[in-house]
Design brief:
This protein is mostly beta strands. The protein is about 0% helix and about 45% strand.
């Protein structure tokens, strides 16, 4: 063997050191060379190297050219192991048709060597790599090693730096860029590997029975077995990168006997002829770091009784032809394990899977099933794994439809992540667990829930709707960011339930079939409430208009003390509202009817056909308890936080304390002259102190303070000039020095310069001098008996006399009974005697006075 590096270029010297005398001679010569020789000859081919000139026969001189020290010339002999480096160049195919002995052969990328059948290629083996494959080496014959190849004797080598270097017997060396000698090995023992297949290089084993040469298989290299008929190749237990079995002439069943257990790249099975490829007759494992690809053949993973084979795949799975099966008794198993940390694609078509072939998706692996169907026996996912589903039928629990159609058991973890990314409308399928960790919707055609789904971590809305029908999406993670990605094209058409913290801003991305109608809830305080459910109900929320809206009125009774005036709807601050956006209304319901909360809502209305107002301040949130109530202005509108575009409106209010229906009110185009911030009436000694404030005034002429003894007939008791026009807060103060002896009702009448006028809410003072601002304090003292059968009594306290509404509400929010009561200030009593049977169960008794309410839980035991 010649002492050179394995590359075809580089600084290479052939020197054999015989004695110290020779060393001295070489020392002087080297000095002369390094001082006077031109640098252009330091790298490249050296005298005696061969390379292919054209494609042809190894034994033909016309195939080769040889380097004579200064140029490549036509070869007069064919290369053997006594020559220099032998290179087969890109685009050339050299066929070995006669026995030949070689050493240091390099097949360039794009080049090929074919060893014909019944011919022997002898490697004059020494230390290092003898055949380097960057192209293709096809072996139809026999490759052997010459164990008696000559080895470099021990001696001294003079380096470029002028120092000597001791060489052990049988070593090789290279010269680095600094002229230093680097020893590559020591001793004369033959190397175990004499085949080096680089990235892109292919070794084709195209014969039956003969052994695969021992080799080093670099990343990107391939060992392809193509010629086996009845006998397994010897020396198959190597650490391959890509391994391909493609034997169309195979007639026997080839048992690898557990010899193939690691493939560092792709495992490919194209053909087994009329036979089978078997991993083992006993339990064994095959770890595939790359892809599993089967386009044909029969792959029988195990063929013994009571045994189990495991294929652990870290890449993609492609089974588009052929059969995957196992032998042995019914207790034998084959398990396909998907264990990539990331996404693995599963592709299957025109394939057969038989026997108890099980599948396991490991933690951190995401299996993308696409439109493919998983066939086999059991299918299991581990905690922290993921599935991507494209079938229109989603996941079926019995494996009859959908992406997973195994004959055994489907065991999907509640802590697995699920993604629906079909291109046609999908259903989730009854195989989807009732609780999942993460759920992602990425289907522009939409996904319909087969049943209610709870999401313990995050819901990601990438594209398309979730259509809940009679079911609901429930996000149990209380983080405000647990839902993300929502947009005009991706939201929930149906019911969305969210678990909440004590405070936070929660988006409810809901809508109708064609429009996105986001509801944003800002919770500033909550007690006894753990979740809320929101829906959007499409259609005109008020077909008869909004003129019947009022503040302070009662169910089906428009006699409230703050009805709209001048033909307008409800009034608040500086606007009249005599219309509602016709797109629909929102509902928000807590899980606990007796829980308390302080919150605000933002409604993002989209797609309405009757939007006419152009200013954001022309809109307000309207609210009603349910469809039997009228719409009222509620809370404290946040006009600054509102927005309006051509067909979208964002309307906002704060300070809400109960839950119900919400809609968007629209101004009729007539602005009231004032923006009233507050109107307070309080007793003080023998007089009544009256204060009010405005945030803005426009053409405001004056205020008339009016008083009434019955709340119906009012008289003017004082007149206060307005500011005309103002954009700053103005405070007003006056007193009633002669309040009525029993009750005094007060209201403000505001008149602008053209004579138009509006009224404020009514405030009332009782005979004891206590004020009633329609926010009376009310408290249930007791309910007895509790539990009850057909009757019970309620003892309650009311701070100021007035009307009280009593409601008996079921735990699902249905009003079972309601009655209005005229109550006195102080302690009151109410006796409930059931006139019709209500079901046995738990109920809430609620008393409301103005905007205050009190509730207690009661239980009915029997009828």
């Amino acid at each position: 063997m010649r002492l050179v590096p394995r590359q075809s270029t580089g600084l290479r010297y052939r020197l054999i050191i015989a004695s110290s005398v020779v060393v001295a001679i070489i020392f002087g010569t080297c000095i002369a060379i390094f001082n006077f020789a031109p640098a252009t000859k330091s790298y490249g081919a050296i005298n005696g190297d061969y390379r292919s000139k054209v494609s042809g026969n190894w034994s033909s001189t016309a195939t080769w050219e040889k380097y004579n020290g200064s140029a490549w010339i036509a070869a007069v002999a064919t290369p053997t192991s006594t020559d220099g480096v032998i290179t087969i160049q890109n685009g050339h195919t050299v066929t070995i048709t006669a026995n030949v002995t070689v050493d240091q052969v390099t097949i360039d990328a794009g080049g090929a060597v074919i060893l014909n059948s019944a011919k022997t290629l002898t490697i004059n083996n020494g230390t290092g790599t003898d055949i380097t494959v960057n192209g293709t080496f096809t072996n139809n014959g026999l490759i052997t090693q010459n164990a008696s190849a000559s080895i470099l004797d021990a001696g001294l080598f003079l380096t470029n730096s002028g120092s000597t270097h001791n060489l052990a017997a049988g070593c090789t060396f290279t010269i680095d860029a600094g002229g230093r000698c680097k020893q590559n090995g020591g001793g004369g023992s033959a190397a175990s590997n004499y085949l080096f297949v680089n990235s892109g290089g292919v070794y084709q084993h195209n014969m039956d029975g003969s052994g695969i040469p021992p080799g080093t298989w670099a990343v990107g290299s391939t060992c392809e077995v193509t010629g086996v008929t009845i006998t397994v190749p010897a020396n198959i237990s190597q650490s391959y990168y890509n391994f391909t079995w493609n034997c169309p002439s195979q007639t026997g069943n080839i048992d690898l006997a557990g010899g193939l257990n690691t493939v560092n790249g792709d495992f490919t099975l194209n053909s087994t002829g009329s036979g089978e490829l078997r991993l083992s007759t006993a339990s064994s494992n095959l770890t595939i770091a790359g892809n599993y690809i089967q386009t044909g053949g029969i792959f029988k993973t195990v063929n013994g009784n009571n045994n189990k084979d495991t294929l652990c795949v870290a890449g993609n799975w492609t089974h588009t032809g052929g059969t995957l099966t196992l032998g042995g008794n019914p207790q034998s198993r084959a398990q396909i394990v998907f264990n990539k940390s990331g996404t693995q694609t599963f592709t299957a078509a025109n394939n057969t899977v038989s026997g108890k072939v099980n599948y396991l998706v490991k933690t951190n692996s995401i299996l993308d099933l696409g439109n493919s169907i998983v066939l086999g026996y059991d299918f299991t996912t581990q905690t922290g794994s993921g599935l991507i589903i494209k079938s229109v039928n989603g996941i079926k629990s019995n494996g009859s439809q959908g992406n997973i159609q195994v004959s055994g058991t489907i065991s999907l973890s509640s802590t697995t992540d699920y993604t629906y990314n079909g291109t046609s409308a999908q259903i989730t399928g009854n195989g989807l667990p009732s609780t999942v960790r993460n759920l992602t919707i990425n289907n522009s055609s939409g996904v319909t829930l087969t049943s209610t789904v709870a999401i313990s971590n995050n819901l990601t809305l990438t594209d398309g709707q979730i259509i809940t029908g009679n079911n609901e999406i429930s996000v149990t993670n209380t983080s405000t960011s647990a839902i993300s990605g929502q947009s005009d094209s991706s939201y929930i058409y149906g019911s969305l339930r969210r678990s909440i913290s004590i405070t936070g801003i929660y988006d409810f991305p809901i809508g109708a079939s064609a429009t996105y109608e986001l509801m944003r809830v800002t919770i500033t305080a909550s007690a006894g409430i753990s979740n809320m459910i929101a829906t959007f109900v499409p259609g005109n929320p008020t077909p008869a208009g909004v003129n019947n809206c009022h503040s302070g009125g009662n169910v089906n009774n428009n006699t409230g003390s703050n009805n709209g005036t001048n033909g307008h709807g409800p009034q608040f601050n500086s606007k009249n509202y005599d219309d509602m956006l016709d797109i629909g209304y929102w509902t928000l319901t807590p899980d606990n009817a007796i829980g308390t909360a302080v919150y605000g809502v933002e409604l993002f209305a989209s797609g309405q056909t009757n939007q006419t107002a152009t200013n954001a301040s022309d809109y307000v949130v309207l609210k009603r308890h349910d469809a039997t109530y009228n719409w009222d202005i509620v809370g404290v509108p946040d006009l600054v936080g509102q927005l309006v575009t051509s067909n979208k409106v964002k309307v906002k209010t704060t300070g809400l304390t109960d839950f119900s229906h919400f809609g968007a009110g629209q101004g009729g185009g007539s602005a009231l002259p004032i923006e009233l911030i507050n109107f307070n009436v309080k007793p003080k000694d023998n007089i009544v102190d009256i204060k009010w404030s405005t945030a803005a005034e426009k053409n405001n002429d004056y205020f008339s303070l009016e008083r009434s003894g019955d709340g119906k007939t009012f008289e003017v008791i004082e007149k206060v000039d307005g500011a005309g026009n103002s954009n700053t807060v103005l405070n007003y103060h006056t007193t009633d020095t002669r309040p009525l002896p029993d009750k005094s009702y007060y209201r403000l009448k505001q008149t602008d310069f053209n004579g138009d006028f509006t009224y404020s809410p009514v405030r009332v003072i009782d005979r004891n001098g206590k004020s009633n601002l329609q926010t009376e304090t009310i408290e249930i003292k007791s309910v007895a008996p509790n539990p009850f059968n057909r009757q019970f009594s309620v003892t309650y306290n009311l701070e100021a006399a007035g009307e009280v509404q009593l409601m008996l509400i079921s735990m699902n929010g249905q009003i079972m009974f309601t009655e209005k009561i005229q109550a006195d200030a102080g302690v009151n009593y109410y006796d409930y005697n059931e006139e019709k049977n209500i079901p046995i169960g738990n109920y809430i008794i609620t008393l409301a006075s103005g905007d205050k309410k009190t509730s207690k839980k009661i239980i009915k035991l029997s009828n």
